[in-house]
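This section describes the prediction task in plain terms. A model, or a person checking by hand, is given the sequence of a single protein chain and must write out its three-dimensional structure as a string of tokens. No templates, partner chains or ligands are provided. The sample shown here is typical of the held-out split.
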Amino acid sequence: MAENILDNLIMKRESKSYVDSLHAILTHTGQFQGSKVVLAGYTGMAFKLSVHRRLLPMSVTAYGQWGEAHRPGVDNLGIFTIWDGGRTRHSTFSYYQQDAVNWARRSIDEGTGVIYWIPEFGVIHGYDDSDRIFYVQDGWSKEPQILLYDNFGLNFTGFWYCQVFGDQVRIPEQQMLLESLRLAIEDWDIPYRLLPDQNITSGRKAYDVWVEALRSGDFDETGAGYILESFCHSRTEIRMYLQGVRGIWNELDQACACYEQLGTLIDQMKGYMVQQENRRVLRPDTTEDLAQVLVKAKALEEQAIDYFRVISRKYPDRKRSTIPRWGAHSAR
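The expected answer:
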């Protein structure tokens, strides 16, 4: 019976859980040397904003069908990836589960960790066949969680997901930067990433729903704090990301100035939260103040995205303008 643990692979929660997991894996394999801020920028993950109409905590990770939502960002790094996931209620789940267990073990043997929905996202960094278990890091605890092979994918959300990574081709940094701006534009413009469900909104629309929920008073208190905390962090990541690439395009510098103004608003927003046990919650007396600040934040981000559009129009965009001979959709 085999056992294999990737000892030097360490995940720490600091950003979106997917970014934390991806950064841990790719820095361990040597496929990425930059900071989490740069990774969140290049993959477009920093720009993702999703909000449930009742501000449920799941909003933070409900930014789309995960495989399709993550693929463009990983593609932008030039890295080959395979993922699988779905609903555990499906009658075929047990077959996909066993297959995923096998290729997760194989990835560990090849020296590469696996992204796994715990929930939220974490990293499988080892296994032990004798006990039929995986070792999983959630980024919070120093001690790994134990996951039985037989329980792979099972959790209270009813969804499962895992992702492995392969070889890499080199993509010029300016090309990755340009694509990240285009990913930001897409996320801003698409209001619903989980159709037909319209309770979860994205991008520009997410701001509107967020403000409506705060003013109606019908929202989840835990979720309200978590969404705000995640928002403050991601918009700070965007500001730091753009500051690091100043001087390439004038419009990019102008967009950066918008996010720097947004940073002042974020300082205000942080004051609307208080620590309660192990979580940050929204102060009840600040809902209208927060709603008003979010309206200003939306206007600044709209302006920044418009600068991104100007940059994007300067260069050909073959990914979005080239239609294959079988039409706009892939062959089945």
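For orientation: The longest strand covers residues 159-168.
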